[in-house]
Structure formats: structure tokens, C-alpha cells
Amino acid sequence: MFISYISTAQVDMGVIKRGGKLAIINGLSLFLFPYVVGAIACTVITSNIRGTVAKNNPEQLHNLLTNQSVVYFQVAYSVLSNLKMLNSEPGRLALSSIMVANCFGWGFFLLLITFDSFLHQNYSKTTYLPTFTKVLLLVGIVVVCRPIFNWIVKRTPEGKKLKASHLCTICVMLCTATFLSETVGFPYVVGSVALGLVTPKTPPFGTGLTDKIGSFCYAVLMPCYVIGIGNKVDFFSFNLRDIISLEFLIFTISAAKFASIVLPSLYFQVPISHAVIVGFIVCIQGIYDVQIFKQLLNYKNISHEAFGIMVISAMVHSTIFTAIVKNLYGWVQRKHITYRRQTVQHYEPNKPLKILTCFYHRETVPPILTVLELSTCPSSASSLSIVSVNLEELEQNNVPLLIQHHPGHNDESSTSSSRRDQISIAFEKFRSGHDLQENVSVECFTAVAPSKTMHEDVCALAFEKETDLIIVGMADGTAAERRLCRNVRNASPSSVAVLMDQGRLPDFKNMGTAMKNDSMRINICSIFLGGADDRETLAFAVRMTNQPYVNLTVLKLVDGENVSHLNDVVEKRLDFRTIENFRQDTMNKHNVALREVWIKEASDLVNLLREEGNNYDLIMVGIRHEKSFEVLQGLSVWSEIEELGEIGDLLVSRDLKLSASVLAVQQQLSSVVEEV
Q1: For position 17, what pLDDT does the model report?
Q2: What is residue 674's predicted lDDT score, i.e. its pLDDT?
Q3: Domains, the chain, with CATH or none
Q4: Given 433, 439, 620, 622, which is the most exposed site by the fewest CB atoms within 10 A?
């Protein structure tokens, strides 16, 4: 009862709307095809085997078939959550398809059980009474319980958890709904599911229910329930003929489920790997299925022997299918290999520079827009393509979302719509504020996903859009922000930049007017120590010098003999070539300066940054450097935000007390590039 309610209360019905046409077709196919194929297999079994199958008569075998052909959303959600696939493309398709199938299934089931009396009795006044009470119960749950939930929401301050009295009220409503369901002729699970569907998905519900009631259910009630299930399974009552017969039926239904997803998905040109993964997901069974099996056993709709075989079969098949899904998804992720250098240093000048920005907090949006403004080109020689990803942790709705925002279309159904719309409007104003609007394109997304797998949405979009750079906004260096930075850096198909604003960057809205009045100067420093990340940093800094109000100073750190600190000969050669190209390209630019600074050890670097750091509005550094660098020895020991690299972490440290914003850059990893 509690498990059914908690799992259903997590369901966001909006996933059906966002699933699109394919989800509806998959859901309808998943609702009909397994049942039809299973009915044919059931007919074949009963016509070729004399007597009963596992002590089930044909009617009981039909009940078994009906429940085996159903796929439950709660089971798929639990599996995808454990496999960290909730915000993956196969995960979204599976959830939306199963949700549609569940809607068809529950609708058909409620109609059938509600009007069952009309099918088995003569028409009279007593015939209408059971039907009327069932309809009255469902309407009563909506009319009575929904206002109570809304009252609880109003009585709970924003950001606070549910009170104990409110939890008691919810438990009383749940017990009452399930009791009345049994009284009017419904299975008890109908009351808990109906109450779960009318439960608001906004705070303090959602994670509040899971934390309060769910933890007790899964930690205390669930083990007891599983022990009770195991006590009902008698291995010695099985015989080979019954096992073979039921396994044939179960396997046939599983194959039908697989085909009902794969065939429509392939018709709609879904990648075959994704279609196969979703096909295996819908074949997985879980505790929710076992709960239904137990309900059938309680009503004596199946025998004890059939119950035991079904439970063992569900356990074995689900273990196999889960392992297959995990390995297939891992293989699909490894196939995300790009066949070109997606970096700022190597991007083609005649094509737009593609930048993806992602951020947790709204406060990081203005500095990100300022960096994007610096990256634009006043002339029409080079355009800028921007993808914005607003990241929200999966707390309020337990269904992962990837929402694309269109200008003028607001997502009013979401409780976070105002925040999302404000961010989308800010980026749209950024685009419309340029004289040459055709040179700046903007796409805005909102990704709602678990914190641990949030980077997958970012990297998948970067791979799909073929971006040259991902800019990750960091506000306070929280654990969630740092985890996001680490995951994006490790899995990104392109270069990555981490921006930490410390208040010196001007508002991008004022930059256009200031440029016309020549009243603003932005001082940028690029620290060049050597290596791929520093070369990428320098390329991005040179891009910014296209703005007339930008002054760029490049600090090339060398040892006492004016040579690079690098030991790698190939890297030294690449650095030398990069510096020479930089000298030639900026020879006629009066807003660019190159200084060679003698640095022997870490203390020299600290003194340099302490003396000159506050002269700049933005300091750009590479993240990774050779471990053998003497100048960086000892800096990592006191690192607080290691995601910025040794120098980047030093720039934002409390010891230096610098006000300059920091942009730490990592060039595209060589492991994600497959040479052609």
C-alpha cells in the first residue's frame, strides 16, 4: 500500500505530453501487442497440454497472461535510477512510452472492473449500485483529497519540510482510500494509486514524501514484505512440465514487449542501439510486479505453484536484462567519439564559433553573458552560435526533463517556469542586442536531472551541436558545482572552460553603450606556462581582442634562461609555434601585449599574482600542466577548488584576496578524438 502510493506520487504526468508521437505509439503498442501475442501463446499451451498448468485452469492462466503483459512505470524508474540512466535518451523514451502504456492499461482496467456488473448481471437497480459506488470513490478522492493537499502546501513555508501532523493526515487519507477501495470492490492498490496521482508534485511533496514515508517503507516494510513473498515460494512444488510451459508463455510475452518498442522506434529512425536498450528495459520486472502477483494469489486467481514460478522467473529475467541494459548503455556511451578537433584553437574561421554554457545558479548568468559578449566579433567575419543549458537538480519532479525553450513560449506548467523564462529571456535579449543579429544564434534548454548524472545532458548536447567550447558557470564552489565541473571535464567531447566570477566583470547590457562612447576598458590577462590547455586559453583570449575595448596582456612564464618550463619536446615545439603565430597575428593590434616573466619557483608566481592580479578584470589560465613543473610544486597541497587547476585555484584563494574573475580552460581531451 505505502510502496504503491510513494512510487505513484513520484509520477509526473507531464512526461506523456513531452514524449511526443513516438511515445504514444510505443505506449499503445506496448499495451496491446504483448497481450495479443500472449493470448495466442496461452491458447497454444492449453490446446497441447491436457489438464492444468501449474494447477491453473484456463481462466487462471488468462489472469497470469494479463498481468505478465503489463509494464509498470515504477519498476522502470527504479531500474533507470539505479543505472544512472534517468536523463539519458533511452531512459526518457522508456519512461514516456511506459507511462502512456500505463494510462491505457489503468483506464481499461478501471472501466472493466467498474462496469463488470453489467457484464455478468441482468439490468436492475442493484446492478447500478456497485458501479455508482466505484465511480463515486474515484471522484471523491479527487474532490476531497486534492484540496487537502493544497491546504498542506499553503501551510508549509517555502523550503521547509512536511510537519508530522501533515504526514499523519496523508497516512490517514491513504488508509481510508485503500479501505474504501476494498469495500466497493476495487483492489486496494487502486486507492493508493489514485491518491498518488492526485498528490501535487511540487514542494513540500515529491522528495518530502520520499524522505519521510519512503525511507521507512524501503528500510522497514520492504524487507518484511520480501520475506513474506519468499515464504510463499515452495521450490519442491515445481515440476518440469509446469516450468517449461510457464517459461514459454513468459518468454513469448517478453519477446512481444521487446518487439512492440523496437519496431516503432526503428520506423521513427531512433538509433538501433537506443531502441534495443528501451526494448530490454520494458522487459524488466520488479517488486511492483511481485506485488500484483501476490494480489492475484490472495484473490486465488493463480495457484501457489504458478506464483512461485513467476516470482523466480521475474528475479532471474530481470537480473539478466538489467545486466544487458547496463553493458549496452556503456557501449553506446563509449561510441560518442568525435572525428574533428572541437576546440577554439582549431575551429574553422569561416564557420561560427559554437559555445555551450551551463550553470546551476542564476547569479552566474550575467558573467557568462559578459564572456559571450567578449567572444563576439563586431564584424561579420565570424559568427557565434550559443547553446544555453539551465541545470536543475531532480528534486521536485522525479522524472528527468530536457526542455527546449522557444522565444515567446513559456513553460507555465512548471513551478520553476519563472526562473527558466527569465534565463531564456536574458539570452534572447543578448541575441537581439547585437546590430548584426544574424551573426549570433541562441538555443535555450533546461535540464532537470540527478546531480550525479547531470553532466550527461551537457555532454550529449555538446556532441549533438558539435560545440567548440563548454563554459561551466561556478558561483560558490559548492560540492554539486565541483562535481559537475569534474564530470563535464572528464566526459566532454570539446574544450571546457570554468568561469568563476569575483565581481570585476561588467554587465554585458552596458557594454554596447560603453563601446560607442569609448568609456569602458576591460583588462584581460592570459597566463601562458605551456601545454595544450594554455594554448587553448591563448586562442580564446586572442578571439576576445576583436573587441576594441579589450586590453590583453599575455604573461609568458619562463625560467632564468628564458626557456619554457616544459620537458616534453613535442609540446615545446607546439608552444613555440603558437607563440610565433600569436606574435604575427597581433603585430598590428595596439591592445595586445606579450611579456616574458622570469619565474623559478612557486613563491615567485604567488608574488607576481599578488602584485598584478588586481590590475585585470579577467584572468585566463590553463587547468592542466606537467606534473614536473617546479613552479607549481606544492600548490596542489593547499588546493580548495582543484577543478580550476593549480593556478586557477590560487587566483580565487583567500590568501591573495584578488577581485579579478577567473576563466580556467581545458582543451579537448585527446581520448575523445578518433583520428581519421
Answers
A1: 67
A2: 47
A3: 2-333 (1.20.1530), 353-672 (3.40.50.12370)
A4: 433
